[in-house]
């Protein structure tokens, strides 16, 4: 699909549509939708901004590419004066005191935020059922989950309710719902986009990235949101992604895939067959393909969840009713903390907080937390070595198609295992894109750190090759 942003820009400039009309249509569609993708609509803010864009166009002033383009925001980002609930009881009435850097950069470029989008509470989940706003329904089959945790964002893009959405990806939360709803989703290199104003889940893997309906739109949004930020010490300056010079005919790629990922017993037979067919097609196009091994693939899930739970237990310790959100009345301070936290968090979030405090507790931290840190260092080394031999690694996005709504939270272990293909690249801090092609839940394209542009170029190549 061609760039929707560019097409809409041209329509705005030629006055084929007005920005107010565009924004109003999207707001109406969001308001009416039955997918549980919306937590809060930003109607007043959006229409006011649309009016300003229309006034500019009427005066004959030039507008930027993103100016007047409506987008969605996962409800774990702060946007000053607006709700930021993390889909939790805890923060259901919380109003953001400032704006997240990535969102501010888009607003500065003239893009218009329309909606705070439903997601798994605090990013905890893989289905967007862990939310007080109702389980998000899949864009292509309402009986199935929307994927998670950025489920509302992916569904909104897939249904055309937003032109693009900004999600958060800690262990797959942009890529997996993108795959489940057949759109593009990029988890950039860790540090390329500031996390400032994103509620922290696993700070050491949290990434901010776009979900969109084309590779071009992913690049346009990335170029607006990337860059060094004084508020986030992990950020770095990056050159803009440039796809204009890329010539598919004159490119050669050297790709790899993990045979252990494909031999995994948990992988659905059709996804396996379709993935291997993609590999064969690429070989037939003259691409060099190497089967790589990831001997410790099984440890990816345990390493990730040990660290994720430890970090989220620490990060969410700040929510005790004294500073943010709801506070339960009680006779003593201690009781108030206990009551506030048991009422404010969902069962799944509580499970992770309890698990995380166990991981970090005296007597266990060496065995679990420090061991997970050491394993993560080995996993990163493994990727770094593999990227000396190949420039792109392909993998499935998920081991199975989206499950039916209703079952996943009852079997958390199975849900954690379903993250097997996404979480490793998060631990590796690598840029990874879901392209909605090849298998029922898409293909994941990963490159070495800071090679985000190459990831998108390969995606273009892959689309043309299939
Ligand atoms: N499903 C994974 C988890 O629950 C990833 C979530 C995310 O990336 N926020 O931790």
Describe this structure in words.
The protein has 16 helices and 11 strands. It is of the alpha/beta class and 466 residues long. It folds into 2 domains: 1-297 and 374-466, Amidase signature (AS) enzymes; 301-367, no CATH class. The protein has an 11-stranded mixed beta sheet with strand order 1-3-2-4-6-5-10-11-9-7-8, with helices on both faces. A hairpin with a 7-residue loop joins strand 10 and strand 11 (443-446). The protein is globular. The structure holds glutamine (GLN). Glutamine binds at residues 123-126, 149, 168-173, 201, 308, 419.
Gap from first CA to last CA = 14 Å
Number of H- or I-type helical stretches:
16
The number of domains is 2
Report the principal-axis shape: globular
Proportion in helices: 40-55%
Sheet of most strands: 11 strands, mixed
The first-level CATH class name of the largest domain:
Alpha Beta
* Molecules bound to protein: glutamine
What's the name of the CATH homologous superfamily of the largest domain? Amidase signature (AS) domain
One letter per element, helices H and strands E, the order comes to HHEHEHEHEHEEHEHHEHHHHEHHEEH
What low-confidence regions span 5 or more consecutive residues with pLDDT below 50? none
Strands of the biggest beta sheet: in what spatial order?
1-3-2-4-6-5-10-11-9-7-8
The CATH architecture designation of the largest domain is: Alpha-Beta Complex
The count of DSSP E runs of length 2 or more, i.e. the number of strands, is 11
Percent strand equals: 5-15%
Q: Which whole number gives the mean pLDDT?
A: 96
Secondary-structure class: alpha/beta
- Rg (CA only): 21 Å
Q: Indicate the CATH topology of the largest domain.
A: Amidase signature (AS) enzymes
């Amino acid at each position: 699909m061609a760039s929707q942003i560019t097409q809409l820009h041209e329509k705005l400039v030629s006055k084929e549509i007005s920005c107010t009309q565009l924004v109003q249509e999207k707001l109406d569609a969001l308001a009416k939708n039955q997918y549980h993708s919306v937590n809060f609509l930003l109607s007043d803010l959006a229409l006011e901004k649309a009016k300003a864009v229309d006034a500019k166009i009427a005066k004959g002033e030039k507008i930027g590419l993103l100016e007047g383009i409506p987008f969605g925001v996962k409800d774990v980002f702060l946007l000053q004066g607006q709700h930021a609930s993390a889909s939790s009881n805890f923060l259901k009435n919380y109003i953001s005191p400032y704006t997240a850097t990535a969102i501010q950069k888009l607003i500065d470029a003239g893009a218009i935020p329309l909606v705070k989008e439903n997601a798994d509470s605090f990013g905890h989940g893989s289905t967007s059922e862990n939310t007080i706003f109702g389980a998000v329904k899949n864009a292509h089959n309402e009986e199935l989950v929307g994927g998670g945790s950025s489920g509302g964002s992916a569904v909104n893009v897939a249904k055309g309710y937003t032109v693009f959405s900004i999600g958060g990806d800690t262990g797959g939360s942009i890529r997996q719902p993108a795959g489940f709803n057949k759109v593009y989703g990029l988890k950039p290199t860790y540090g390329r986009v500031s996390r400032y104003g994103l509620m922290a889940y696993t700070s050491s893997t949290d990434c901010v990235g776009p979900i969109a309906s084309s590779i071009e739109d992913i690049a346009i949004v990335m170029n607006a949101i990337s860059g060094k930020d004084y508020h986030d010490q992990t950020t770095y300056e990056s050159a803009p992604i440039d796809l204009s010079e890329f010539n598919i005919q004159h490119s050669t790629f050297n790709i790899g895939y993990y045979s252990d990922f494909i031999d995994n017993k948990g992988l659905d037979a059709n996804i396996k067959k379709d993935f291997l067919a993609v590999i064969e097609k690429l070989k037939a196009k003259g691409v060099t393909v190497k089967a790589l091994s990831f001997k410790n693939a099984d440890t990816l899930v345990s390493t990730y969840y040990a660290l994720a739970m430890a970090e989220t237990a620490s990060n969410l310790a700040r929510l005790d009713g004294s500073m943010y959100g709801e506070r339960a009345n009680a006779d003593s301070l201690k009781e108030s903390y206990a009551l506030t936290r048991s009422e404010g968090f969902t069962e799944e979030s509580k499970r992770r907080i309890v698990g995380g405090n166990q991981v970090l507790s005296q007597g266990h931290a060496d065995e679990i937390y420090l061991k997970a840190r050491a394993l993560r260092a080995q996993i990163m080394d493994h990727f770094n070595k593999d990227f000396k031999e190949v420039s792109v690694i392909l993998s499935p996005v998920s081991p199975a198609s989206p499950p039916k709504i209703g079952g996943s939270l009852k079997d958390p272990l199975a849900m954690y295992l379903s993250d097997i293909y996404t979480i490793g690249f998060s631990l590796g801090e690598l840029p990874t894109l879901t392209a909605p092609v090849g298998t029922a839940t898409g293909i994941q394209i990963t490159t070495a750190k800071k090679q985000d542009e190459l990831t998108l170029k390969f995606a273009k190549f892959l689309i043309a090759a299939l």
